[in-house]
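Example record used in the benchmark description.
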Amino acid sequence: MRKEPNHRLAAVMAEAGASNKGLAKRIREVAQRHGDHLGTTHVAVQRWLDGKGIQRQTAMYVAEALSDKLRRRVTPRDLGFPGAVKVLDNSVSVSYASSLPEVLDALGGLTHQCPEDGRPDGTQLPDADVHSAVLTWLISRPEGVPSDAPATRRVGMRDVAAIRTAVEFFMQLDFRFGGGHAHKAFRHYFREDVLPLLGACYSAKVGAALFRAASEISQLLAWSAYDIGNHALAERYLLSTLRLAQVVGDRTMGARILTNLSHQANYLGKAPRALALARASVEGGKACSTPRAMALFSAHEARALSTARDHKGAARAMNEAERFFERAGNATDPEWLAYMDEAELNGEFCHCFRDLGQGTEAVRFARRAVALTDPKYARSLGFCRMVLAQSQLLDGELEAALTTAGLAVEAGDALQSARFRRYVDDFRREVSAHAPHPVVQRFDERARKAMDGMDGMGGVVGSDDE
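Model output (structure tokens):
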């Protein structure tokens, strides 16, 4: 069958002013930058122009080479290579992107990944990859936005306002219904409406605001993937978002990303890694972050220390978080930090005391967290209720623990969150020591049915028709 010429590739090459030989040379240079060695020549470029096939990785190199040349993001799809979408490979390490086109290309590839296709817990990247990325971020300088991109579309503050409105909407969906409810919509919006703007034309002022807004929604994509249970995908989003925040020197957002990575490592039981990441967030953010942000970062250092059963260190970090929070009203915080209120701080502390085995203190803070949490933060409320139940059980209050857990299960029936299901499963396992009690048996049956109902909800499992 005769192949159709690749008009898209020809058009982008013409826009870039790239000859066959020139593009081949750039492709070889890009490949070498990635530790790969290609023998691409002008003959291969002509074959692609004639419509012949191309290897997926080579298509990525072609896109990166033309992105560098044009100073805007170009994807394999833009070049007429629709089958060349990057596939997430958990066996391949991920480096901290060296350029803006590289990180935009990585993010574009991630938006084609379905979280339900990934393996569950235990798929984190090697420590060396993460620590290398963190060190690079810590010593980095903002490079500034590419305000002279030769693009036809010009971005204005109205476009940025639209993204911020979407961020607020998606955050509320995530808080109220869990990451599984709308991750597909998140990534479709990010891929189709946000990424193209980053490669368009804008002033320095608009560009700075645009990149901050894009980092917020990219962070949401990472968080929802984490909540669903795809830890490899979440981690790759987080590292790419860390690089995105570097463009405009948003150190507070960068520190938040490290806090999220610490949160995830702690959830997976990797306390040393969680502690290193939390301390990096504290050190990386302290020069420019508000007291409220520093309270968040210090609270997660306390979480990691509590998991490690370091009582003295955890008490110190909690005290620091509390002192920062007492000064939180004296500064203007980024909008995304609004959730870090008194309820959230108490929620972090109740987790700490539970993990330290201090049942009475855990119950005290958990009760306060439950009482203060706005119902719109349904997932957080569910977590705090489950920690309260675990803490009551730790304190010998079996019936109170079952009542609390029952409320959490009943109120959390709309949550599409692998993390919430794990909280419930952990409690069921802990309370199984009292299995002979009829009240425990009744709760377990009720919880099992509720969890079965959550597993059967749409939006988490199933095919992706994008």
